[in-house]
Amino acid sequence: MSTPDFEDRPPDGARLTSYDERHLATYIRLLDADAEGADWREAARIIFGLDPNLELTRAKTVHDSHLARARWMTEVGYRHLLEPPTQ
Questions:
Q1: pLDDT tens, 29-81?
Q2: Element spanning 64, H or E
Q3: What pTM, to 2 d.p., does this model score?
Q4: For residue 87, what pLDDT is reported?
Q5: Is residue 26 a contact partner of residue 81, using CB atoms and an 8 Å limit?
Q6: Are the CB atoms for 31 and 87 separated by under 8 Å?
Q7: Contact call for residues 39 and 82 (beta carbons, < 8 A)
Q8: For residue 12, what pLDDT band results from cuts at 50, 70 and 90?
Q9: Is the Cβ–Cβ distance between 16 and 80 less than 8 Å?
């Protein structure tokens, strides 16, 4: 499974974005890995294709910021998916 192009940090606003919509599967994969106790390095390698041995700081930033956004999605963001689309 390939990951759509990603930024080092996802958006952090209070509204769901098109970036979030494109990365829903990524967020779910991160949440699953976290729930299973997977090492963040392994998750960064598998989910984002980043090698923590070569890019430790970036891999950690990408992993942690996307995991935080995934958690936000489970607490707040999912509600936006239930709203009717605006035109």
A1: 999 999 999 999 999 999 999 999 999 999 999 999 999 999 999 887 766 66
A2: helix 56-72
A3: 0.84
A4: 57
A5: no
A6: no
A7: no
A8: confident
A9: yes
**In this structure, are residues 77 and 40 in contact, taking their beta carbons and an 8 Å threshold?**
no
CA–CA distance from 37 to each of 7, 9, 68, 69 (Å)?
A: 24, 22, 16, 18
Confidence of residue 1 (pLDDT cuts 50, 70, 90): very low
Contact 6, 23 (CB under 8 A): yes
Is residue 2 a contact partner of residue 51, using CB atoms and an 8 Å limit? Answer: no
Taking the C-alpha atoms of residue 53 and residue 25, their distance in angstroms, rounded to an integer, is: 25
- Quote helix, strand, coil % in the chain, to nearest 5: 60, 0, 40
Q: Which two tokens stand for residue 16?
A: 């769901």
Question: How far is 30 from 35, CA to CA, in rounded Å?
Answer: 9
